[in-house]
Amino acid sequence: MAEHHKVLIVGGGTAGISVAARLRKEGVGDIGLIEPSDQHFYQPLWTLVGGGCAPAKESERTEASVMPQGVVWIKAAAAGVDPENKSVSLEDGRTVDYDYLVMCPGIQLDWDKTPGLPEAMRTPGVTSNYDYSSAPQTWENIKRTTSGTAVFMMPANPIKCAGAPQKIAYLAADYWRQQGVLDQIRVVLSLPTPGMFGVPVFAQELEKVVAHYGIEVMKSSEVVEIDGESKQAVISHNADGGSKESIDFDMLHAVPRQSAPDWVKATPLADPDNAGGYVQVDKHTLQHTRYPDVFALGDAGSTPNSKTGAAIRKQAPVLVQNLVDVMAGRTPSASYDGYASCPLTTARNKMLLAEFDYEFNVTPSFPIIDTTKERRDMWYLKRYGLPFMYWNLMLKGRA
Fold first, then answer.
1. Residues assigned a catalytic role
2. What is the tally of helices (H) and strands (E) in the chain?
């Protein structure tokens, strides 16, 4: 007989733990949570790890230490969902049945979708802050680089923390400025977007940042192939008919393409109109558009907001309220407005806190502070305040 839970959560990352904690505070019992990993990571810190501003170990805790009391941890990997029969299949062959399902399995890093990237990651000059073991090597590369060309790339499809590809470029450039070698280094930032940022007021501030460092920004462009051995990156200029340019580099910070996990794409829950295969939900209620007993949040959901931990912080209370409503036979009453936050480290002691909603309206959490400008106090929020909030408040359902 299959294991059964009233509420089954797939994924024990930021979203899964936050929702589980909030459901427990609402008095919901019989919660099962599927998560195979022994370790839990605060991934936003990896940018600072790659920039030499924080130790990697500070981003890591055991999964057991963040699991809410009263939640049954099913230590296995999910492999499929049968929403008609209300069951989730596991990689080890077991199935778990549910009354209500919360999908938050996170996002998949598609390293192999950029030709040459998997091989390049095994060469000394190429690293990525999207990988826990590689982020410290980014800092080693930055320290070793005193001349030549440094390339920072961003893929065209949605990724988690879309500001991360820029943030490491600014941390590196500021370090090189401090070392007196910045004018000896060609810093190239390849962006798939026509502007620095989707919200004009923040884009204008970032234009000043790249001008200050002398960073060469290639807009509407992306790295489409990497040869790690010969240290060459092929950049496609999409605004120019897809013309290709090959750049020799001394160091390259790579960002892989990303999508929903392959097994999620294969389920009936996936959005058939979305190439990323994300779980199809109403962007305001976070309830599945075809299966009312299924909800989703976080990076694997189809909501068109930036995929950030800050977005999850606003999504979790909405999802929990709506799930509680549905469990009680009520219509979902809470609405998510698309809030997302991108803490952009523009220097080794400054940060620009970009907060906005679905309509790209600026939605500041600190109305008395002008967060449309880079600020030193925001740096301390990024380095110390946000990690404290994450471990002590957000994962415990308190923020």
1. 161, 342
2. 11, 21
- Spatial CA neighbour of 35 closest among 102, 100, 110, 86: 102
Is residue 161 packed enough to be buried (19+ CB in 10 Å), middle (13-18) or exposed (0-12)? buried
Residues 201, 204: Cα–Cα separation, whole Å:
5
Task: Report residue 217's pLDDT band, with 50, 70 and 90 as the boundaries.
Answer: very high
Q: Environment class of residue 289 by beta-carbon count within 10 Å: exposed (0-12), middle (13-18) or buried (19+)? A: middle
Would you place residue 241 in the very low, low, confident or very high pLDDT band (cuts 50, 70, 90)?
confident
Return d(Cα 76, Cα 38) in angstroms, integer.
10
Full-model pTM:
0.95
Q: Is the dihedral of CA 373, 317, 274, 75 positive or negative?
A: positive
- DSSP label of 304: -
CA distance 352 to 375: 6
The pLDDT score that the predictor gives to residue 369 is 84
Interval 91-117: pLDDT, tens = 999 999 999 999 999 999 999 999 999
Of 174, 164, 163, give the one whose Cα is nearest residue 356: 163
C-alpha 66/C-alpha 19 separation (Å) is 12
185: how many CB neighbours lie within 10 A of its CB? 23
Asked whether the CA dihedral 285, 290, 291, 292 is positive or negative, the reply is positive
Instruction: Provide mean pLDDT across the span 151-166.
Output: 95
Do the Cβ atoms of 109 and 121 come closer than 8 Å?
Answer: no
Q: How many CA atoms lie within 13 A of 259 on its CB side?
A: 17
Local confidence band at 381 (pLDDT 50, 70, 90 cut-offs): very high
Look-up of token digits 């192999």: 112
Q: Which of 180, 111, 85, 169 is nearest to 346 (CA)?
A: 169
Structure-token pair, residue 249: 């580099």
Give the SS3 label for residue 387: helix
Strands (DSSP E) contained in 122-220 are 126-127, 148-153, 185-190, 216-218
- Which residue's structure tokens are 């190439």? 275
What is the three-class DSSP state of 307? strand
Measured from the Cβ of residue 133, the count of other Cβ atoms closer than 10 Å reads: 9
